[in-house]
Amino acid sequence: MERVVTVPGAPWCAAVAGRWLELLDARPVARLCLATGSTPLPVYARIAEAHGALGAASVLLLDEFGDLPADEPESCDRVLRRSLIDPAGVADYRSISVGTPDLDGECRAVDGWIDTGPGGCLDLAVLGLGVNGHVGMNEPGSPVDGRTARVELAASTIASAQRYFEGRARPTWGVTVGLGDLLAAREVWVLATGRDKATIVARCFESPATAEVPASLLQDHPNCTWWLDKPSAGLT
Ligand code: GLP
Fold it and tell me: Where are the alpha helices (DSSP H) in 62-134?
């Protein structure tokens, strides 16, 4: 069952971070899988300010772009380190090495990271939302039981990623934690803000659950929360 939290007045990020801190209080050793992109950054800033909140937690990077220059500051790893991992401090952080010659081995090692958690699953997946309904880099048509894999990006994802790289790179593929592990997480949050996301947010609720709109599959998740501001909820 999905729960939708629309945050109308107070800062959206304060509501999300507040609930996250409660969750960490109850389960300090949580194993988290975290998105980058621009949407979660204000939330991460709040969590980072709550010194020590993530000190016993373990964090897995949700996805990473392929073929970026080695010093690219907007790689998913660099963004997550800068916004949360470094300022907050965590017990364990697992990024995804997309440059390794044994990419399949790297994907299986990420699966292994997930499998070693209690119950063999993630405690909380914090996801953004692509304008085509992707979560992580699981594009429309991705296998619902998929695990960590190299994936080709949809044209809309390639275009929309340009705002991160400002012409320095144009990644067409990446590695992502698969839908199977995201749907199996004990708890899933989808964060969406801004009017640009209103159409796809509505579609995720109005369409039947289908892999053609990956985030719509969360309709069947037992503990999923959508954190929406008013524009992404279509209320302004
Ligand atoms: C990107 C990433 C996702 C991210 C999403 C939304 O392509 N692969 O993990 O959550 O698209 O990004 P943003 O929050 O910048 O809109």
Answer: 76-80, 86-88, 103-115
Q: How far apart are CA 126 and CA 187, in angstroms?
A: 9
Q: Name the amino acid, one letter, at 211.
A: A
What is the 2 CA–ligand 1 centroid distance (Å)?
21
Q: Which residue CA neighbors atom 13 of ligand 1 most closely? A: 37
Q: What's the mean per-residue pLDDT of the chain? A: 95
Ligand 1 centre distance from Cα of residue 37 (Å): 4
**C-beta neighbour count of 127 within 10 angstroms:** 30
Between the CA of residue 15 and those of 19, 178, 179, 228, what are the distances in Å?
A: 6, 28, 26, 10
- What is the per-residue pLDDT across 47-61, written as a single tens digit (0 to 9) for each? 999 989 999 999 999
Please write the tens of the pLDDT for every residue from 128-159: 999 999 999 999 999 999 999 999 999 999 99
**What's the pLDDT band for 1 if we cut at 50, 70, 90?**
low
The preferred substitution site among 13, 41, 43, 63 for testing ligand 1, maximizing ligand atoms within 8 Å of CB, is 63
Minimal-distance CA residue to ligand 1 atom 11: 130
